[in-house]
């Protein structure tokens, strides 16, 4: 009996971190897919944000190029 309760508790705690069955690395991938992060100010943008909007942010906020603020953005 005690074992079952413990397992349920553990499962609950895992669900809390919203990582159902996936590994940590998978969660990381999902997180990366969700957002683009400005390397300068760490502001996050949806991955669907278009390049011109990112470029505008880089130029207006930091007077930098898009490549400088978003090295990973295509
Ligand atoms: Zn920024």
Automatic annotation (TrEMBL):
Domain Small EDRK-rich factor-like N-terminal: 1-34
Start and end residues of each At2g23090-like zinc-binding domain: 37-72
Ranges annotated as biased composition (Basic and acidic residues): 9-19
Domain of life: Eukaryota
Pfam families: SERF-like_N (PF04419), zf-met2 (PF12907)
Region (Disordered): 1-29
InterPro entries given in the database record: At2g23090-like, At2g23090-like_Znf, SERF-like_N, ZNF706/At2g23090_sf
UniProt cross-references to PANTHER family, sorted A to Z: OS07G0114300 PROTEIN (PTHR33788), ZINC-BINDING PROTEIN (PTHR33788:SF1)
Protein's name in the database: Duf1909-domain-containing protein
Species whose genome carries this gene: Mycena venus
Upper classification of the organism: Eukaryota, Fungi, Dikarya, Basidiomycota, Agaricomycotina
């Amino acid at each position: 009996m005690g074992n079952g309760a413990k397992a349920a508790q553990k499962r609950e705690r895992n669900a809390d971190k919203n990582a159902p069955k996936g590994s940590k690395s998978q969660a990381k991938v999902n997180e990366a897919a969700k957002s683009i992060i400005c390397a300068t100010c760490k502001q996050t943008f949806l991955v669907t944000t278009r390049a011109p909007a990112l470029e505008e942010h880089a130029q207006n906020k930091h007077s930098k190029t898009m490549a400088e603020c978003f090295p990973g953005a295509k």
